[in-house]
Amino acid sequence: MSSLMLEEALSAPDVVARQLAADPLSYARLGQALQEQPPSSVLTIARGSSDHAAHYLAYLVMARLGRLVTSLPMSLITLYQSRIHCQGLLSMAFSQSGQSPDLIAPTKFFREGGARTVAFVNASGSPLAAAAEHVFELHAGPEKSVAATKSYIAQLVAGARVVAAWQQDDALRAALNVLPTALEQAAKLDWSAALPVLQNEERLFVLGRGTGLAVAMEAALKLKETCGIQAEAFSGAEVKHGPMALVRDGYPLLVFAPRGPAQAGLLAIAEEMRSRGGRVLLAAPQGTPGAELPLVTTGNEDLDPIALAQSFYPMVEALARARGFNPDVPPNLAKVTKTH
């Protein structure tokens, strides 16, 4: 019997196609404004899966546009009442529901202070959407499973669209336009090799780097909430600074190594972890030596992590069921989390 989580994950290619057909002028206007009057500082506001999508956008902005991006600790506004300087600031909030008070309050504060405020949100009539100056709807439709899937992928795409518009990068725009086809292929890839390896595990490392680290973070979260596995995400570089002391005697690691400048180092760390006795599940493009989990390549290597997420979700849903969990109803969690 199919779960809502799987149905929603498999609907992501259609969601992305729908989003890409919508709001082109809004993205173009924001991109033009950012070109003509670049921000002096950039920050993101998000939690959970949405924060991982924000991390992806932040990495693209830093790598492609050379502008540092900060993830806002929201308690600075909601608890400490910090009077953050808003002059020249660009704030970008990510949310599925748009209802969490600790996203709404900073967005209001920054807008009232003269900053440019952007919200990527699935619920266009939400309080967060009302608080922001620029609103980009995800067009994901209602998401009923507690574990976000299609809305996360839609957030990744929306972030990439902003970067393409800001850079006025026609090659990235063209790659985005054909992304739904790549996602359809990614959803069909066979990741079943991971199931017998992870079915009885209680802890796990997920390694990524660069643009792929945001998806490693998301994967670790999904493994926690749907499978009850204490999964931790690390940069392929950071894991060598202490965490790898745990790796021995079959310790499981998921290593995400899509194309790009980080790939060679991730392949090397996968081999090193194998030599230490770790049980490595390597996700890499088809034909990569040692890769048990195949990856689709998209029209631009910066979009490959989106296809990676699309391939991961059906696997983690199947793993949850294999471990005796209902992936639609993770214990102790609700669809909308209202924190302050």
Jot down its keywords.
5-stranded parallel sheet; globular; alpha/beta; 340 residues
Task: Write a compact overview of the structure shown.
This protein has 340 residues and is of the alpha/beta class. The protein has helices at 4-10, 12-20, 24-36, 48-65, 75-78, 101-112, 127-131, 150-167, 170-177, 179-187, 194-198, 213-227, 263-275, 304-322, and strands spanning 41-45, 69-71, 89-95, 116-121, 134-137, 203-208, 230-235, 252-256, 279-285, 291-295.
Structure in words:
By secondary structure, the protein is α/β, with parallel strands linked by helices. Helices cover 46% and strands 16% of the residues. The protein has a five-stranded parallel beta sheet, with helices on both faces. Strands 7-6-8-9-10 form a five-stranded parallel beta sheet, with helices on both faces. The protein is globular. The two termini are 38 Å apart.
